[in-house]
Amino acid sequence: MKKELEQLIKIKVAISLNKLLEKNSEHHLTDEKNNSTPTSYSQIGDSAEIRKATVSDIFNAKSIPRFDTLVLIIENMGYSIMDFGNEYSSITNSEIMAFKESKF
Length: 104
Hints:
434 Repressor (Amino-terminal Domain)
């Protein structure tokens, strides 16, 4: 049971972060001049001073981030914990299944 819950947490964290990253990418396309928010794992890693591999593992549900690492990523993407929480709590079972099919 614990392993299944940990896997679900990893997936929901990854989906939430990917949604926020997608929003940054969309915003970047519409407002290139005034946008300094990260749009890639590399940019997130650089701005948050976290290894790109760590960022990639979190965004691909390979690891559960420590809370401080999660906060660094979220804030360096230009969002708040509340923004992340809203995304996290709105994830549907179909999104989870689609993520599993695409990654595992």
